[in-house]
Amino acid sequence: MSKIRRSARLVDITHELLTRPHTLIPLTFFAERYEAAKSSISEDLAIVKEVFEKNGIGHLLTVAGAAGGVKFVPYMPKEKALAEIRAILRRLEDPDRLLPGGYLYMTDVLGEPRTLRQIGCMFATVFADCQADVVMTMETKGIPLAHATAEFLNLPVVVVRRDNKVTEGSAVSINYVSGSSKRIQTMSLSRRALTESARVLIIDDFMKAGGTIRGMIDLLQEFQAHVVGIGVFVESAYAEERLVDSYVSLARLTEVDVRERRIRLEPGNYFA
């Protein structure tokens, strides 16, 4: 890239950092890209760092030394996250979202890019230091949330299937007990999806008793993988027995009254 004005350089540096989170970028990369001195690049990064932190966008970490550089770590302050969650919950409490059986319709909300990005950034903030290698979820409604989280953590996504797909090669399958229906179900994961001893962050859209997540944990044992975090968008308050002990929820479903057509949600345990 030819030499450009400082204002344009600041815009391009910001874009580069936002699109490469959790990636160490050497100062020489920027210096050569803009044909500028490292001292000038350091001054630019100081400006970006101040704006990022002042506006709750994230942290800009500096690593000293010959192999050093800068790393952008997305971060959403808890106060901002709480305001965002409360706005989402007001929408989810609409009585028209009640489905037969007392289920809650969330597909449209979880299909909105901005909402997904907000939730993904919250999870990325919670699990910024878990040093995961991949983000895992169960098909199908958890997939958008997993991708949104993985985008901010700069990690690949692994999807556990209910049926083995021919296009994914040989797979490991296990039976698990669904926490809500108590039925025996099957989940499978391609043998090529994970390396041995991988560190896995599990993200899911909804949890009642936690049977599906418990199944994923058991499945990961077949790969000798390690669960380093569990994030749930909405947890139910009605579980008689929770099959998962340690997890982070962003919202909690506290009341579903089909007869009165009433839904109540509150912020999850992350905000406790």
UniProtKB/TrEMBL annotation:
Record-annotated Phosphoribosyltransferase domain positions: 124-243
Pfam families: Pribosyltran, PuR_N
UniProt-listed PANTHER family: HYPOXANTHINE/GUANINE PHOSPHORIBOSYLTRANSFERASE (PTHR43864), PUR OPERON REPRESSOR (PTHR43864:SF2)
Gene3D superfamilies, alphabetized: 3.40.50.2020, Winged helix-like DNA-binding domain superfamily/Winged helix DNA-binding domain
Listed GO biological process terms: negative regulation of DNA-templated transcription; negative regulation of purine nucleobase metabolic process
Stated name of the protein: Pur operon repressor
The Bacterial purine repressor N-terminal domain, residue ranges: 5-74
GO terms assigned for molecular function: DNA binding
Record keywords, A-Z: DNA-binding, Transcription, Transcription regulation
Keyword Transcription regulation: yes
UniProt subunit comment: Homodimer.
Annotated InterPro entries: PRTase-like (IPR029057), PRTase_dom (IPR000836), Pur/Pyrimidine_PRTase (IPR050118), PuR_N (IPR015265), PurR_Bsub (IPR010078), WH-like_DNA-bd_sf (IPR036388), WH_DNA-bd_sf (IPR036390)
Gene behind the chain: purR
Family in the record: Belongs to the purine/pyrimidine phosphoribosyltransferase family. PurR subfamily.
